[in-house]
Here is the input.
Amino acid sequence: MKYKRILLKLSGESLMGDKQFGIDNNRLAQYATEIKEIADKGVEIGIVIGGGNIFRGIQAVEGGMDRVQGDYMGMLATVINSMALQSALEGKGMQTRLLTAIKMEEIAEPFIRRKAVRHLEKGRVVIFGAGTGNPYFTTDSAASLRAIEIEADVVLKGTRVDGIYSADPEKDKSATKFDSISFDDVYAKGLNVMDLTAFTLCKENELPIIVFNMDKPGTLLQVVEGEKVGTLVS
Here is the structure.
């Protein structure tokens, strides 16, 4: 395995599958299978998942809601997704722990860095819920922050596209894919990999990011084994 400890970032929207909102159990089961495949090979796995399939703070603001209130609602949405993923993983016989940035002891442990690392060392999949616990920060920022805190080797950003392109490949057919690209080039070209806060955190801490298609079975294993899939930012 090329990477011993990873932070996997999943978008909330990806959990919708073919639905318009909410959680698609088939997609959840597929992700659980992919994650189990790499866990069985000894990879230590931390996961951060978004909440966009249930609630987005930004959309709430557009409707006239207070931004801070909207962001906290978004954090709670990530906890719902985290619990769903936890259930799917445990259904495949895996040991998991859900740690949240906002205390809710009845359903999860509070995030304590040392505890998170200990769980990883014991082979448990650790899911980090409720973002950073602060408004104005995205789940991308939470993923970067947690990855740095647990000393992950890489951030794996699972998306619907197979890497970073010069333009949106779903809209522009002439868009070209980058196999690898530097942090500075991403800035220079104005490419949208993560929000700037998250991206800068990775750059300053020399933490590589790989963007890949999580919906294509087997790709997660290929990425962890070091095969040339997706786009590496370093």
Remarks:
- Residues 5-233 form a domain with the Carbamate kinase fold (CATH 3.40.1160.10).
